[in-house]
Each structure stands twice: as C-alpha cells, then as structure tokens.
Amino acid sequence: MAPRVREREGAMTDLLEAFRAGEPRALARAISRCEAGRGAELIRALYPLTGRALTVGLTGPPGVGKSTISGALVTHLRALGKTVGVISVDPSSPFSHGALLGDRIRLAEHFVDPGVFIRSMASRGHLGGVAGATADAASLMDAFGLDVVLIETVGVGQSEIEIAEIADTTVVALQPGSGDSVQVLKAGVLEIADVFVVNKSDHPMALQLQREIRSMMEMLDYAGWVPALVSTQALTGKGIDALWNAILAHDAWLRESGQLRAKRRDAFAHRVRQLAMGTLEERVEGAIVGLDDALDPYAAAETVVASFGIHDGVHATGNVRTANVVRATVKGL
Length: 333
Ligand code: GDP
Prior knowledge:
9 strands, alpha/beta, 47% helix, seven-stranded parallel sheet, globular, binds guanosine-5'-diphosphate, single chain, Rossmann fold
C-alpha cells in the first residue's frame, strides 16, 4: 500500500476512534469533512449508529427569534438532562464558518457546556443540495449519541421545505405584527408545519396572529396530525416547556401511527435522490459542453444518456422530482 494511502486510512481510523469515544473535536472534524464533500466514508461507517436522536427543524423569517428560541430550548432540555446538538444553517452564505455566526450570540452561554454541541454551517455548493451537508451533520450528531438534534434555518424559499424533509418534527416560528401569516400561506409553509410557534407573545398583536393561524388551519383538511399552536416569549423562556411538549406530542404521534418509519424512509429517499441527482447532473453538464449543436435536442439528449450506457432513447417526462407527501389539502378543492 502506498504510504500516503496508509496515512490517510490511519487518519480516518483515528478520527472514527475518537468519534466513538465521544470526543467533541472528532464530531467537529467529521462535520467539516462532510461540508468539504469528503464525508462518504465517515457516513458509511457511522450510519448504523443513527436513528436514535429526535430531530427537530426550526424555521421562520429573520428576526422572529429562532436563535433565542433555540437557546431557550437548549436550556430547557439541559434541565431535563438531555444532550443537544444545534445546527444553524445559513443558506445565503457561501462560506463555512464552522463556528458561531455573529448573530448566534443567544446560544453562546451553552458554548462551554459539554452536553451541547453547536455548529453553524453554510450549505451552498454541497453535492447534496441545501439539505445535504445539514443532513450529514444531523446524522453525525445522532451517531455521536446526542439526544436531540435541533436544525435552525432561515425561512427563505426552498431551504425550509428541505429541512422539513430531513427533520422528524418541523417547527415554524412566526412573529406578531409582521404580516407573517400571509407569508406562510404564500410560501406553502403551512403544509410543512407540525408545530406553529407565535414568538414574542409580549407583543400586542400576538393573539391576533394566533387567531389568523387558527383560521388558516380551519381551511385545511389534515390527513393525520393537526399542527399544534403554541405561544412563546423566548427572551424570558415563557412557553418553551409548552413548545417542547408539543414537539414530544408530535413525536409520540409519529411513533404510534407508524409515520416515523415512513417519514424517515422519505428522508432517506430524499438524501439518496439529492446525492444521485447531484452526481448525474454534473456528468450531464459535462457531456452537454462537448455536444454538436447541429443536433436536435432529442438526438443530443440521446447522445448524452448513451454515454452513460443507456440506449433506450429519451422522453420528455416533465419534472422528475417527485412531490412531497401531501399532509393537508384545502377544503372544498
Ligand atoms: P432570528 O433571526 O430568528 O434568529 O431571531 P433572534 O433570535 O436573533 O431574535 C431577533 C430579535 O428578537 C432579538 O433582538 C431578540 O432579542 C428578540 N426577541 C426574541 N424573542 C423575543 C420575545 O419573546 N419577545 C421580544 N419582545 N423580543 C424577542
């Protein structure tokens, strides 16, 4: 064996050993490897250890109080004796900090607690899309033995939907007096929420927002779980126990109804699809570059797929991306 290969394998063995021994630095290094697109071997080795953590996605517009809620939830969970991993996803940032972002100060008090592991990450440019590096990080935290993995992401477009695909329970935080309820309807966030949180319950419009969310929910027929609605004042910790209880209630429902298995199967499919499509897309792009543009698009596409050994032609199938499981439909439609 070449010395460099032996060295690399030795480093991997050391990393895995440190990881299994519960060294937080090994978890940090493992996440960095995944972020850099070199996580396949690690995930392969550690995947059998996953499936025990409760994974919670927390999404909502900037300023709603997500990091304050995360901090308060961590405090609550630590008081219950649970260990917690927090992944702070910043979909707009192309940079990986591997540390706290400036505005994640609320979590800083938990920095020195060995029962809490906090990680900020950018997710652009990862092979598995927005959710790819995040899903890897969540798997690693799960395999590390953390009881709860909290994934916090800014609600912009696709990212919150992706988080809902990998988390067991999705919490959508909204802010009174901001027109958030209208945004929710527009963005299709209503369908992904397992728990709604109206944060800043000290705000005069808080009750109004709760009423709006209730009336939006009344327009829907839910196929199973009806989202819980809780109100919090994250700055003081008020309502955080109710939030955790709502998450637990959803988790219990998932387990009792058999939906947890189905949900994790969907999450698995989502990750496989992202990885496989990412790899294929790269190859397709490479093949397109060298194409003769005198060809018609069908003939050109056939040339591309033939280069992968597929010879039974091409056909327009429209959007190949399968739709998410529909959890609710609008009444009367
Ligand atoms: P994020 O951008 O969603 O992560 O929001 P932050 O957690 O950074 O909070 C945004 C601002 O809202 C900060 O100034 C917080 O202090 C404030 N905030 C958070 N929770 C509450 C609350 O319950 N009541 C009030 N009045 N302000 C809050």
